[in-house]
Design brief:
DUF465 domain-containing protein; 2 helices; mainly alpha; DUF6284; single chain
Length: 85
């Protein structure tokens, strides 16, 4: 039985000490508005876990959902837009 390596021998794997590449850091920076909006929505959801949501809670949840959708839409549009040099 021959076992094939998962990583080609010519490729030297990165170690955690190398840290993220510049491209990975750029991708994370581009996704930060989505991450922030997801955290806001999660906070709103956690706040109403153990009680009946009030009208203010409902507004907060709707606002957080709208913000998340807007951030996802902006990221999708950013990724699909052609780059201008």
């Amino acid at each position: 039985m021959n076992v094939l390596p998962l990583i080609p021998r010519s490729h030297t794997p990165r170690t955690p000490a190398d840290g993220p590449s510049a491209a990975e850091l750029d991708a994370i920076e581009d996704e930060m508005p989505v991450i922030d909006a997801e955290v806001e929505l999660l906070d709103a959801q956690i706040a109403v876990l153990d009680r009946t949501p009030s009208e203010v809670d409902g507004q907060r949840l709707r606002r957080a959902r709208r913000r998340l959708l807007a951030a996802r839409r902006a990221l999708a549009n950013q990724r699909s837009a052609p780059e201008v040099a």
